[in-house]
């Protein structure tokens, strides 16, 4: 099975999208960095394996493991029942708080205040799915292909609200001090898990063990805090 | 065909005075002068490359001359401020290659200019198209496209197209070289009828029999110069050895 | 995230540009060979060969290159054929470029006037002699400008190889953009680099076009 | 390989795919229409004897043809926004595609203009037609007829290339596909389906152009020359 | 020019029997029959569209006939299994439009087929090119490209190209219509020399003087049929009113 193959090869191939900050990105020296990158590095170190990043885009994360071009995915995969039909998930190693953030000057307390406002979102993210399913709330969505474009839309004034993680919402004000965004409505907290192709129970088991250990010893929380600025939810850490 | 000629009866309809024209280093017209009076048919002959086509093209201002003077129907062709379209309403030209518009039917080819330039009605133009096509023996080809016609038929259609503009002078550049003797004869009759009606014509041709039959005057060009000129009779009794050689070896 | 553009970023873009050039060359070479075969198939005396090649061209010209890349790289393994990213990108570009060049070249061959074919036939030249000695030399003149012109499209289209994991010019720009969040700046730089790669080729294409008379065919992509 | 293809999940989303395909067609239609107008004007401009006019048209064509469409779309979308002009994503996408395809059609139509034999124009000049009349009757229609196959291909390519506008939130076919595949993680099924839809769209477009050709080129209709 | 004729002395070199050919609804050849014996010069005349070019093209199998039989130098042209290249080694054809290869010099145009098809050496082919070009008066144009020549010169080069293959039959389709009388005379001499050397020829021409001078036999085509046939004398004393009209109105 796959776990044996990995151990025999002494190398693990991890699919990570390097264009979704702050989980996967490049630092000023163009070294991979981000919470998913450090998580992957921690895993490889703990298991004594050489680490190879497989560059993916959002659309090719899953096919990469399905066709054995990567062993596992550590790339902000949030768990949904629909997706669980296609690949297996480990237990959650992190969580992502999704919010709708708006321009500071916008009065918005709850969903009804967002009616009629254009909300920018990255296409195909769980935020997108969640908001798309809220048919009765009459939200207007503008979907962009990635976070950078979405942020630029907000920075340049194409949109006054965004649905994303709190971390990214804060970036807007950094880019353009005259347009400071703040979280207005919480969408949900999503569990992020490692993706493994179907039918590899041994590997999933071993990954689950590793996640539990590192949640308990606080290492995963530390990585998360470093990049997202907040701690993981209390119930995950215990 | 109704012709209203405005040119004063004394002045020639076409006049070239000492015309020079070079293509790069190649001197094609080297001081060419001749005149064509109203109602006259002038035939230009000469061996290949002697500058006949070029002379014709200069008359209709398709080429600018280097020096000299050309006047056609009171238009000073050599004048840079010439009203080109006015000149070309008075001058009809038919080329060696027929240049029918391939995307238009024969009728559309013929009615295009009368409708667009003279502004006559579509119906009137179509009636006229039928007439000029009948003149060249093509009345049944009204709704065909050029590529559906044989070479000879295309050339006749091109002549008809020019006639439809009722020009004051017609220039023909080897228009009969694709026609068989029968059609050449027909066109000859058409052209004779035109001449009788007062049409002035300048034509380049290689067919000496045709030249003899139609020419009021013959201009023999040789190396860019008018080498010999005179009535059609010079074709049978040439004065210069060059012309003698040119016609002697022919028919 | 954050930070500002530095020399490393530019190096990274330069490295991406190298991949863009490399992939373009692969596409041109593979596609050139494929295109030549397609062009010959399209004018083959055999009806079946003509139909099949026409179907191929229709199919490929109707499918975005992105989808071809995706299906080659991830689709073939499902049939038990494993391909490396380079093989997948090379194969996809060959398939894609071949269809377009094949059409350009077929058009060029057919635009040699019919009387030329007949004159060659009348001299008892064999089919291959007619092709090689009379038709192709004339077709090459007609085909060169649109072919060179199409190279510009190949260069721009290699950006889609990011789907199989290549970090070429466009993808490296995207990655940098996602750490700097400066799309305006980054994409302008990318535009300038693409322009620098493409414009000389466009110039050559135009020169050729002027020398060999008007091009009857030209094809491009966005 | 443990992949079991399951198209049912994807087919369930057909209304979304239909909407996306329609939007793709709308974008292609608008850009084709306006792009043709720009192409004709641009080609006339490029052949203009006025050096500034032909230079400007040249710069337009070269800058568009030598840079990726994506960049052009970003520049229009964010550029307009930073000038304080807000348009819908659809309007911006249509505008960017029009500007893009206009440059290509300019080149194609110019090549068509250049391919009209000198003798044709001389014949028209000899008939005293004005410059505009010559352009319209003798140059433009035969030129467009000549390059019609290239134009058709260019517009089909434009339709395929319109997928990039998903980047600025136009909900066309590729955008729908991206959304569906990230929602279901069924990338193969989605891409195969989307490939089929694109092929159908391009066949529909080619058929449409063929029919249009029969209408606007009566000679082709009469003589049965294939377009 | 050295001719080795393999055909049995009794059989004609070219024979058409009841040949029918239509383009769609248009019947172009309607039961055409004629024969050309060895060394004979047959001139095809008739008005534009009467099917002369088509008949010539059928002989060299550029068009397939609908019914009837054509035999050329013992090749059964109407046979679907015909060896086309063998046929065309025996038949030379020169078209109305010259069809020189624009990317090759005149010399290369002429040497192409002898080298490629007959496999003779480059040097020999070049020597031969010089000879045939001299025959048509173009020895100085060896290294020019076709576009550098005038129309008349191009046509002569095309004739030279065909001569270089030393065919057994030559087909000419209005080869002189672009030539002036002087050059027509030269070509006439070339063709006479060929005839004296035993060359069999079929030519379409509109020039009656030329036809009278060269023809052993004249075939007058009218509406797709052979309407009248006989020696060159029929051009001066036609038997049918149609031929009378055809030649009568001409020169
Ligand atoms: N546009 C041009 N540029 C350069 N040279 C030209 C051009 N037009 C004609 N010539 C040259 O000028 C000379 C005269 O040409 P022209 O066409 O007037 O001859 P012509 O007497 O009409 O001959 P032909 O009987 O063969 O038609 C030729 O040598 C020709 O090559
Ligand atoms: N490929 C073709 N398709 C359809 N019609 C044709 C084709 N070739 C010739 N024709 C028609 O057949 C008829 C005879 O043509 P052909 O060229 O044999 O005439 P021709 O006697 O050589 O005339 P010309 O003296 O004008 O050259 C004409 O009416 C012509 O329009
Ligand atoms: Mg001339
Ligand atoms: Mg003919």
Task: Provide the fold topology.
The complex is a heteropentamer, with one copy of chain A (238 residues), two copies of chain B (251 residues), one copy of chain C (222 residues) and one copy of chain D (227 residues).
Chain B: E1 14-23, E2 26-36, E3 41-45, H1 52-59, E4 67-72, E5 75-76, H2 84-90, E6 91-94, H3 106-118, H4 122-135, H5 151-163, E7 169-173, H6 181-196, E8 200-204, H7 208-214, E9 217-222, E10 225-230, H8 241-248
Parallel strand pairs in B: 3-8, 3-9, 6-7, 7-8
Antiparallel strand pairs in B: 1-2, 1-4, 4-5, 9-10
Chain C: H1 7-42, H2 47-61, H3 65-75, H4 85-110, H5 114-122, H6 127-157, H7 169-180, H8 183-211
Chain D: H1 7-11, H2 14-46, H3 51-65, H4 69-82, H5 89-114, H6 118-126, H7 131-161, H8 173-184, H9 187-216, H10 218-223
One adenosine-5'-triphosphate sits between chains E (23, 26, 28, 46, 48-54) and B (150-152, 180).
Family (chain C): Belongs to the binding-protein-dependent transport system permease family. HisMQ subfamily.
Domain ABC transmembrane type-1 (chain C): 17-205
InterPro entries (chain C): AA_ABC_transptr_permease_3TM, ArtM/GltK/GlnP/TcyL/YhdX-like, MetI-like, MetI-like_sf
Features:
heteropentamer, B: 251 residues, alpha/beta, Rossmann fold, 6-stranded mixed sheet, 4-stranded antiparallel sheet, 8 helices, 10 strands, 34% helix, globular, disordered N terminus, C: 222 residues, mainly alpha, MetI-like fold, flat, disordered C terminus, binds adenosine-5'-triphosphate, binds magnesium ion, ATP binding (chains B, E), ABC_transporter-like_CS (chains B, E)
């Amino acid at each position: 099975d796959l776990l044996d193959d990995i151990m025999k090869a002494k190398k693990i191939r991890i699919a990570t999208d390097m264009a979704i900050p702050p989980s996967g990105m490049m630092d000023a020296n163009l070294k991979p960095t981000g919470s998913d990158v450090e998580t992957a590095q921690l895993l490889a170190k703990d298991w004594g394996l050489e680490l190879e990043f497989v560059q993916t885009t959002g659309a090719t994360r899953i096919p990469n493991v399905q066709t054995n071009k990567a062993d596992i995915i550590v790339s902000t995969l949030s768990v949904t029942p629909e997706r669980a039909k296609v690949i297996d998930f480990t237990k959650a190693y992190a969580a992502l708080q999704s919010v709708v953030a708006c321009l500071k000057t916008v009065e918005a307390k709850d969903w009804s205040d967002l009616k009629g406002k254009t909300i920018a979102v990255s296409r195909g993210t769980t935020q997108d799915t969640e908001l798309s399913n809220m048919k009765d709330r009459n939200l207007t969505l503008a979907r962009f292909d990635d976070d950078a474009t979405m942020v630029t839309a907000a920075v340049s004034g194409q949109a006054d609200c965004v649905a994303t993680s709190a971390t990214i919402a804060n970036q807007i004000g950094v880019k353009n001090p005259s347009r400071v965004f703040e979280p207005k409505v919480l969408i949900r907290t999503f569990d992020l898990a490692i993706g493994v192709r179907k039918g590899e129970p041994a590997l999933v088991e071993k990954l689950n063990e590793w996640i539990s250990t590192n949640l308990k010893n606080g290492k995963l929380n530390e990585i998360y805090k470093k990049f997202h600025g907040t701690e993981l939810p209390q119930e995950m850490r215990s | 065909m109704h012709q209203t000629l405005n040119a004063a009866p004394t002045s020639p309809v076409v006049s070239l005075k000492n015309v020079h024209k070079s293509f790069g280093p190649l001197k094609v017209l080297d001081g060419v002068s001749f005149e064509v009076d109203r109602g006259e048919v002038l035939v230009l002959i000469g061996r290949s490359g002697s500058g006949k086509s070029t002379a014709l093209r200069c008359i209709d201002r398709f080429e600018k001359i280097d020096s000299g003077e050309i006047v056609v129907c009171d238009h000073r062709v050599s004048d840079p401020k010439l009203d080109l379209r006015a000149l070309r309403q008075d001058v009809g030209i038919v080329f060696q290659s027929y240049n029918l518009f391939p995307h238009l039917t024969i009728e559309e080819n013929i009615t295009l200019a009368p409708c667009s330039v003279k502004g006559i009605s579509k119906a009137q133009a179509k009636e006229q198209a039928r007439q000029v096509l009948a003149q060249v023996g093509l009345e049944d080809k009204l709704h065909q496209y050029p590529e559906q016609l044989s070479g000879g038929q295309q050339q006749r259609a091109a002549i008809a197209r020019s006639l439809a503009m009722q020009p004051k002078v017609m220039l023909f550049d080897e228009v009969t070289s694709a026609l068989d003797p029968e059609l050449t004869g027909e066109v000859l009759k058409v052209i004779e009828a035109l001449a009788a009606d007062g049409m002035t014509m300048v034509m380049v041709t290689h067919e000496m029999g045709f030249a003899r039959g139609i020419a009021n005057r013959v201009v023999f060009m040789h190396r860019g110069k008018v080498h010999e000129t005179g009535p059609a009779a010079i074709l049978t009794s040439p004065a210069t050895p060059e012309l003698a050689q040119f016609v002697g070896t022919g028919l | 995230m954050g930070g500002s553009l530095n020399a490393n970023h530019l190096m990274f873009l330069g490295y991406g540009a190298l991949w863009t050039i490399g992939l373009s060359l692969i596409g041109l070479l593979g596609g050139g060979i494929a295109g030549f075969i397609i062009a010959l198939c399209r004018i083959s005396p055999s009806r079946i060969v003509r139909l099949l090649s026409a179907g191929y061209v229709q199919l490929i010209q109707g499918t975005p290159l992105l989808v071809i890349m995706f299906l080659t790289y991830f689709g073939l393994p499902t049939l038990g054929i494993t391909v490396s990213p380079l093989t997948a990108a090379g194969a996809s570009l060959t398939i894609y470029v071949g269809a377009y060049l094949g059409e350009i070249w077929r058009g060029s061959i057919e635009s040699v006037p019919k009387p030329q074919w007949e004159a060659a036939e009348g001299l008892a030249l064999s089919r291959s002699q007619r092709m090689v000695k009379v038709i192709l030399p004339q077709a090459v003149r007609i085909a060169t400008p649109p072919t060179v012109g199409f190279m510009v499209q190949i260069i721009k289209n290699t950006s889609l190889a990011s789907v199989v994991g290549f970090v070429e010019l466009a993808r490296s720009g995207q990655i940098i953009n996602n750490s700097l969040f400066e799309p305006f700046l980054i994409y302008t730089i990318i535009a300038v680099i693409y322009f620098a790669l493409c414009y000389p080729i466009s110039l050559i294409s135009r020169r050729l076009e002027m020398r060999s008379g008007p091009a009857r065919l030209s094809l491009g992509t966005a | 390989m443990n992949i079991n293809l399951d198209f049912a999940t994807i087919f369930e989303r057909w209304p979304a795919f239909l909407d996306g395909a329609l939007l793709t067609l709308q974008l292609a239609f608008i850009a084709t229409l306006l792009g043709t107008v720009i192409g004709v004007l641009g080609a006339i401009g490029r052949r203009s004897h006025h050096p500034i006019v032909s230079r400007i048209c040249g710069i337009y064509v070269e800058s568009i043809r030598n840079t990726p469409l994506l960049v052009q779309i970003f520049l229009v979308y964010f550029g307009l926004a930073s000038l304080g002009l807000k348009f819908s994503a659809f309007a911006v996408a249509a505008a960017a595609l029009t500007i893009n395809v206009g440059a290509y059609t300019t080149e194609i139509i110019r090549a068509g203009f250049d391919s009209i034999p000198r003798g044709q124009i001389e014949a028209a000049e000899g008939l005293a037609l004005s410059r505009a009349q010559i352009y319209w009757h003798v140059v433009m229609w035969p030129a467009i007829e000549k390059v019609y196959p290239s134009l058709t291909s260019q517009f089909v390519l434009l339709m395929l290339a319109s997928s990039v506008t998903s980047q600025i939130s136009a909900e066309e076919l590729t955008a729908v596909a991206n959304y569906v595949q990230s929602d279901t993680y069924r990338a193969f099924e989605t891409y195969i389906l989307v490939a089929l839809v694109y092929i159908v769209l391009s066949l529909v477009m080619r058929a449409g152009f063929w029919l249009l050709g029969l209408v606007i080129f009566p000679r082709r209709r009469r003589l049965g020359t294939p377009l």
